[in-house]
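Most newcomers find our protein records easier to grasp once they have seen one. Each record describes a single protein and holds just a pair of labelled lines. A learned vocabulary of local backbone shapes supplies the integers on the structure line. Nothing more is needed to start thinking about how sequence determines fold. The record below serves as our worked example for the rest of this section.
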Amino acid sequence: MNMTSETPNWFAASWFGQCLSSTAGRIGRMVAGVGIIAAGLVAVGGTAGIVIAAIGLVPLLAGAFDVCLFSALFGGPLRGSAVRACAR
């Protein structure tokens, strides 16, 4: 029995999952990523700042490439389009 084709994943079908995979959610993740990168490079600086900036790449790239890492973490689809298809 294939759970993804018959029953939508609970997270992907939830309000939060749908919000994260929406256009506004993607833009929000990209803005947050840029903010984390800027904070790391400007506010913190040094090696710690570079590490924080590298962490900021995760939400930036996830939003840019329409990937929902939280959905995959909770057993749902990775692609944002597949998450949006699970809408109730």
